[in-house]
Design goal:
The chain is α+β, with helices and mostly antiparallel strands. It folds into two domains: about 60 residues; about 90 residues, Alpha-Beta Plaits (2-Layer Sandwich). About 55% of the residues lie in helices and about 20% in strands. The protein has five helices and six strands, in the order αααβββαββαβ. It has a six-stranded mixed sheet with strand order 1-6-3-5-4-2. The chain is elongated.
Amino acid sequence: MKNNFKILSLLLILAMMIACGSIPHTMGPYKEADAKNTASQNAKNTQTQAQAQQTSKQTQTPKQQQTQEQTQSKQNIQNNYEVREETFSMVSISDAKRLKTYNVIVGSFSVEENAKKLKKSLQPEYDPIIVINEKGMFRVIIASFDNYEAALEEINKSIRHKFPDVWILAQKR
């Protein structure tokens, strides 16, 4: 009889603990509903923004439209990719001719050996360059460009899907 009472008491306590606990909206059956609501809201926001842009474009001159699109493009670029300016030098002097103003970084290490391992793993698909900044960080560059837009285009075309943490390094002058 005492054992039955203990078991019943434990079951009652367990049931109360389960009943008192709440399931966050990011889990369980709420997760799917939240995802649908978020997707629906994002679609509405996108549609509203598109309508606002269309209305705005109708009242602008072609020059104003071009300026606005360029500004918007640059904002999108800066929101998606971190751009840093640093003073750095080549680890291997033979790489100096290949280095340009905007450099696509796929790895950053405090230990040179780790940078060399990444460089070796990227070959032969890429011909990486290792540079070292003024704080002693080794940066692994897989592409280098004269202008920012070309760097961004290459990132979007072929680099981002392989290296989601990619960023752009500009040589500080």
